[in-house]
Amino acid sequence: MKIKLLTVSIFLIVPLLVHSQDDNFYWVEDKKQFFEIDSTELLIEVNITEQNKINQLKSDPDISNYRTKNSNTTQYIVKQTRSLDFINRNQLNSNKKVYPAIHERGSGATAFITDEISVKFFKEPDLKTFTSKYGLETVEKTSYGAIIFKVLDSKSTLKIANKIKENESVFWSNPNFVHIINLYQRVNDPLYSNQYYLNNTGQTGGVQNIDINAPQAWDITLGCDNIRVAVIDDGVENHEDFDGRVMPGFTAGFNNTNGAPLNHNSKGHGVACAGIIAASHNDLGIRGIAPNSQIIPINIFPLPPAGQNFAGVVTNAEIATAINWAWRPDRLNSDILSNSWGGGVENSDVTFEINQARTQGRNGLGAIVIFASGNIQQFFPGVTFPANVSGVITVGAIDKNGTIWNYSNRGPQMDLVAPTGSLGSGDVVTTDREGTLGYDPGEYFNNFGGTSASCPQVSGVAALMLSVNPNLTETQVRTILQQTATDMGPNGFDNTFGYGRLNAHAAVQAALPTISGPTLVCTTNSTFNLNNLPAGATVTWSASSNLNISSFNDDQAVIDAINGMVGGEAWPVVNNGWIEANIITDCGETSVREYFWVGRPPTPTADVDRQPIFYNLSLDGVPSEICVSPMSQTGDFYAGGIAGFGHSFVNHWETDAGSIYGNSSPTEYSAVTVNMNNYGYRYIRVRAENACGYSAWVTRYFDLVYEPNGCGPGGGGIGFAMQYSPNPVAGILTVDITPAEKAEAQSNEYLVTLNNKYGKVVYTHKSNDLCHSIDMQSLEKGLYRLVVQKDGEQHIAKIYKD
To answer: What is the rounded CA–CA span in Å between residue 297 and residue 288?
Structure first.
C-alpha cells in the first residue's frame, strides 16, 4: 500500500507542473526559457529533527547529492529507480516532498522546481495582500533585493511564478530552482619550474612560449595587498603558501562558515584555484600570478557525499546571495570574482547579481567577473551558464602545445584561453589542502587541470592590472585583456579561442597610466600629462639627455630642448627623445615612458638601413641609369621611412632632369618627367621638413641616356661599333671603334668623353683615331660614363673604376 501511495505522490507532480509541451517554460526577466521534464532523477525533501537520522540519510548509498535547506529540512537527489528503496529503507513516507528534475532546452543543464519562487519587484507592494492573492508565504528578503516566497500548493510553483511575471510589475519572477552545479576540473619556489602555464620553456614537453608571459609581467608588478579576489568555489582556507592572506568570507546556504571548506569531503578545489591566483613567492612551493593579493573565500558548494566531490546542490537565491556578499562594498568588497564552476539552468537571480557586480562593484567602477567556459563540450557544444552571461570574461582551455582541449566549451561568448591540463590526470601544479584533507597527502597537488585552472590565471592577471591602475573600469579591464591576447587559430576573434591566449605582460603594460603630450619638441615649454594616476600616488620625472625638465608635479611635467633644435646632423643611438614617470604607490613602483621627436629631421646616411621606428630618408629604388626613348620619358623615385615616433615629416624634391610631380603620397613618392635635352649624369634630391626646420639634402645621381632607336643594348642601326676593356678597370681603359665601312675610317671624327658620377668630364678627345687609351689610375673608384659620338650618333657604356 505504501508503494502505491508513493507512486501517486511522485508522478502527480509532472502533469500539474506543466499542461502541454508549449507550457514548459519559465521567465528569465522578459525572455521565455523552455525546458524538458526528466523524471529519471528526483529531489526528495525530508523534514526531520533528529541529527542521527539526518547523518544516516546523508550517507545513504542511493543518494548522489544533498543540500541542507535549514536546521530541520534536507533535500536529497536520488535516481527514480532507487527512490522507493531509499524512502522505504529510511521510513520517509509521512514527512517528504518529491520533485522531478528539469533539463533546460538547448543546454541540458539540470535543476529542480520545488515550492519556492524568487520575485524582484520594481516597487514592493503590500506583501500581506500579495501573498494572499497568490497563495504564498514569505520566506526571506535577500540581500540583493529579491523576495523568496513559498507556494502553499507545491504543485503550482511554475504556474504561479509565470502568472506573477505576466500580471504584476516585477523585474522578474521565476522558480527558486535547486541547481546541480559543477566544479570545472579534473579532479626559488621549488615547484615553479613545473608551472609551464606561467613560463613554458618546453620543460614538461610542451611547445616553448605557449604560456601567459607571467615573469615579464612580474618585472612590472607583483600586485598589491589591497586588491581582493573572491574565489567563488567550494571554500578556501589558509595555507603555507598564502602567507595569511585568506580573509573571512561567506558560505552560501544554511550554515555560514565564512567561506571555509565545510568538512573533510571537500578535496580543495577552491584552494587549488586560489594558489594559481595568489600563492606567495616565498621559496616554499609554487608561484601565484598576483602573490600579494588578498583571497576572499566564497563557498557555494554544500558538500556532497564522500566520493562526489565535483558537484553541489544550491538554489538561485543562495548563489546570488553569495555573489552579492562578494562584491558589495559594505560587505566583502571584492575587486575580482573568480568562478571555476558552472551549471544549472539560466535564471534571473544569478544573472542580475552578476550584472550588479559588474556595474556597481568597486564603488561604481565595476567588479571583474571571470568564469570558466566549462568542461562538457562533448555533451553540450556551447558556453555553459553563467559563463554565457553578457559581460562575463569567459575562459577556455588549451594544452601546453597551444591546441584547444576537446573538453573545453566554446562559442560566441568566449573571451580568452589559457594553458592547462587534461581531465582526469591534469599536470597543473598548485596548492592543496594541507595534510590529508586535500587531493593528495601533503601541501601541493600536481594533477589539477580543466578550465578550472584556466579561469584563475585570468583572475590573477586582472589583479596585477588593478594593482598598477586601480582606476580602470570593468569594461576597460575586459577590453585590455581581449586586445592584448595572443591571437590563436584564425586571425581575429573566433568561437574556439575567443580573442586568443592570455598575455599577462601585455595586459599589465596596457593597464599602466599613460603619458600624453606633443609628438614633436622644438625648443621650450612642451607639456606632458600623466593620465589615470592612482589616488595617493607620487611621481618622479626623468627625461633623455637632450632635454631639461623645467617644472613638474605628480601628474604633469614641462620640458625644454637643450640648445634649441637638437635633432641635429646625426642619428640617435637608441631613440630621439623620451620622458618617464616613476609612479610610487602603496603597491610599489612602476614606470611609464613616452617617446617623441626632438628638433628638425636628421641628415641620414641614405645607404644605411635603419629600424622602422627611426626616420630614414633615403632614395631607395632610384636606378643608376634611366634609358629614355620616345615611348619612355619618366622615372619613379621613393623616399622611404618618413615618420619617427609618431611624428610625420614633409619631403621636398628637386632635380635637374626635368619636372617633378607626386602620386597618391606626394611626400613619400615622386616621379620625374625627364627633359629630352638633359642627357648625361643628373640628380634627384629630397630633404625633410618639420615645424623645427629642415634636414640636409639626400641626393642620388643617375645616368640619363637617350636612345632614339630604343633602349635595348647596342643601339641598333648606328654606323659604327664600340668595344672597351677591361671593365672594371684599375689602370688603362682601351676603347676600339669599328666603322661600318672601312672607307669611312679616316674621313670621320669621333668624340670620346668620360664623365664621373657627378657629370664632370674627366677625359675628352675628338679625332679620327679608332683606338683610344684612357689612363684612369688616378681617378676615384666608382661609376663612370663613357660616350663615343659621331654625327649625332652615340654609344654609351658604364665603366667601373676599381
So the answer is: 16
Residue 612 carries which DSSP code? Answer: T
Concatenate the DSSP letters of all residues of 365-430 into one string. Answer: T--EEEEE--S-TTT--SPPTTTTSTT-EEEEEE-TTSPBPTT---STT--EEEE---SSS--EEE
Residue 223: pLDDT band with limits 50, 70, 90: very high
Distances (CA, A) of 256 to 251, 299, 321, 447, 725: 5, 9, 12, 30, 101
Burial of 40 (0-12, 13-18, 19+ CB in 10 A): exposed
Q: Which neighbouring-strand residues pair with 592?
A: 581
Strands (DSSP E) found in 194-325? 228-233, 250-251, 294-299, 311-315
Strand-pairing partners, residue 774, are 733
Looking at residue 265, its amino acid is N
Q: Which residues contact 576 (CB under 8 A, 6 or more apart)?
A: 544, 546, 567, 595, 596, 597, 598, 599, 614, 644, 645
Q: Residue 548 in 3-state DSSP?
A: strand
Rounded Cα gap, residues 20 and 8, in angstroms: 20
pLDDT band at 519 (very low <50, low <70, confident <90, very high): confident
Q: Which amino acid is at 271?
A: V
Report the pLDDT value the prediction gives residue 172, as an integer from 0 to 100: 96
**CA distance readout (Å), 111 to 42, 183, 346, 347:** 10, 16, 10, 11
Which pLDDT value is given to residue 627? 57
Cα 169 to chain centroid distance, Å, stands at 41
Beta-carbon contacts of 456 under 8 Å, excluding residues fewer than 6 positions away, are: 231, 273, 274, 276, 277, 289, 338, 340
C-alpha cell at 195: 608551472
C-alpha grid cell, residue 532: 589615470
Ramachandran bin of 344, using left for φ above 0, alpha for ψ from -120 to 50, beta for the remaining angles: left
The C-alpha angle with vertex 532 and arms to 526 and 537, in degrees rounded to 5, equals: 95
